[in-house]
Amino acid sequence: MAATSRGTSPVPPDVRPRLTVLSGPSGVGKSTVVAHMRKVHPEVWLSVSATTRRPRPGERNGVHYFFVDDEEFDKLIANGELLEWAEFAGNRYGTPRRAVLDRLEAGEPVLLEIDLQGARLVRQSMPEAQLVFLAPPSWEELVRRLTGRGTEAPEVIERRLAAARVELAAESEFDTTLVNTSVEDVARELLALMLEVSGHRADSD
Ligand code: ADP
Ligand code: 5GP
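A: This is the predicted complex of the input protein with adenosine-5'-diphosphate.
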């Protein structure tokens, strides 16, 4: 299918914004899809998470993550500043609460890219949120992407693959699955899901 979302188009005013959560196994392409959304659809507000992980080459503080140390992360938790948080492959990640709620109150669609545990926590605290699972075309392709990224040590890749096996089994908990064969197609489909008016999907009525 050809990608159609090439330009920057504003979010139409007649649609009801809501919180959308994008989740899926490590290496499936979540941050690639989010980076594409950032470029092609800057009108979609993306939550920036706090993490105790070290920045990868090219990652910028305040853009890709807020990079914090353990002590700062402890404070964010203690002060109730996180909407949800989880430990993933040896590091902690959390969604700053205030920014997300402000955007939703302002009527803007909001996208969170978080892990499975975080998606479950959001479902509990905000049942109206839409949960989207990003799936790989195959297990072999997932292993290839995770290994090919070249940013993790072998033992970290092993830990992430072990987590991915568990995460793949959770697909049925999500409202929708998008298979990441083409980043452009996924971004276009994700935007369409985010802008759905009534909360009823045409294919589920
Ligand atoms: P995640 O954020 O889910 O851990 P990344 O976005 O870092 O995953 O992607 C993992 C690797 O897969 C990267 O090298 C990225 O370039 C590659 N990738 C992502 N999407 C696709 C795709 N649709 N086709 C081929 N490679 C992809
Ligand atoms: P990475 O280290 O590859 O950037 O992210 C590792 C995992 O943490 C990914 O599955 C990503 O979706 C998840 N993640 C990123 N930010 C958050 C967050 O704020 N909360 C939760 N629960 N997971 C997050």
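The helical segments are 30-40, 70-78, 97-105, 116-125, 139-148, 154-168, 183-194. Confidence is low (pLDDT under 50) at residues 1-9, 198-205.
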